[in-house]
Amino acid sequence: MIIKKRFILIYLILIIIFFIMGWVLRGSRIENLKCASSPLRLSGFEFVKPLLVCDTNTQKDYSDLKILETKLKNIINTKKEIDDKIIASVYFQDFKTDGRIDVNENEKFNSASIGKVAIMIAFYRLAESDPYLLAKQIKYTGGIDTNSKQAIQSKNYIVTGETYTVEELIQRMIRYSDNNAMYLLVSLLNASTIKSLYEDLQISIPFDIEHPENFDFITTRDISYFFRILYNSTYLMNDFSERALQFLSETDYNDGLVAGVPKNIIISHKYGSRSIEQGNNIIEIQFHDCGIVYHPRNPYLLCVMTKNFTDIPSAENLIKEISTAVYQYQDSR
Questions:
Q1: Phi, psi for residue 220 in degrees, rounded to 5
Q2: How far apart are CA 217 and CA 176, in angstroms?
Q3: Taking 90 as the threshold, does the pLDDT of residue 85 lie above it?
Q4: How confident is the model over 25-31, as a mean pLDDT?
Q5: Does 16 have pLDDT greater than 50?
Q6: What is the pTM of this model?
Q7: Whole-number average pLDDT of the chain
Q8: Are 128 and 235 in contact (CB under 8 A)?
Q9: Concatenated DSSP letters of 22-82
């Protein structure tokens, strides 16, 4: 009888222990699903506030990333010792731990061709309410060749006289950074459509074409939102987010971020270049590369934006060094 009572007592104690453990783990899981702080939410609705990005706060204590942050700053400072006019910003986010690094976070740049990602997102947003939009056929009749001055040329630009679907134009714009495809797409967009995307992400766009010097308006953290809402599929339907990131993984450019990681690693990214000319001379180059690196264990987002370079290879080399340092750090964890 005593043994039986002890057995029942032990059984009851185990039940209580497992109940308490289950409650604690449940609370922990629920807490992990919550947005810790400073969420970015979509406005324009009366009753709901859809969540776009869980946490916009980069001022947290990510002490485990201090070694990497110091290394990235040293890489940039080494370049600045050669030319003190060079400016570079880096945004890094680990998708597993949510760890962040934001170097020179307040520096603003021209988005250049990375802005094409926003145009793609805007079209897929419209396609959610117009199922025929992406299949709509558009004939390219030619005109001013806006690709002719691109610093990085592709062999797959759209051809005068050919007809393309809207989605084919999106593919060309992203994969080959085709400016002609971009302007053809933009001609189909209402200006308020693309503007509303930036407003949803709380990014201010300067529209004063009389003052192009003000076109340096966007930070690496701002750019990160384009990729984060695609990765989290919080702005578009899952299929469209998947398709957008697939096109970005097929970008026809293998320097910059791509050059800093092993060849088997997938990167959904977009580069951008902007040159400022004075007479026949280029006096300043901005060059950027931003995207998601699908490390098999520790996927992450990396955005590097640079300006005041005198040639693109130097900027590409800096981005490659930063990409290599980040990948090696993620790979060693």
A1: -60, -35
A2: 24
A3: yes
A4: 36
A5: no
A6: 0.84
A7: 85
A8: no
A9: HHHHHHHHHHHHS--S--EE--S-SS---EEES-----S--GGGHHHHHHHHHHHHHHHHH
User: Residue 276 — very low, low, confident or very high, per pLDDT cuts 50/70/90?
Assistant: confident
Strand partners, 100: 93
* Rounded distance between C-alpha atoms, residue 331 and residue 101, angstroms: 17
Cβ atoms of residues 121 and 236 within 8 Å: yes
pLDDT of residue 229: 94
- Per DSSP, helices labelled H in the chain are 2-33, 66-82, 115-127, 166-175, 179-186, 191-200, 220-231, 238-249, 312-332
What backbone phi and psi angles, to 5 degrees, belong to 138? -125, 130
Give the residue extent of every domain in the chain.
Answer: 56-332
| Measured distance CA(171)–CA(177) in Å, rounded | 9
Is the pLDDT reported for residue 156 higher than 70? yes
**What pLDDT, on the 0 to 100 scale, is given for residue 36?**
58
CATH fold, domain 56-332, is: Beta-lactamase (3.40.710)
How many Å apart are CA 51 and CA 78, to the nearest integer?
Answer: 40
Residue 87 has pLDDT above 50, yes or no: yes
CA atoms 180, 303, 201, 98: torsion sign? positive
d(CA 128, CA 122) in angstroms, rounded, equals 10
How long a stretch of residues is the chain?
333
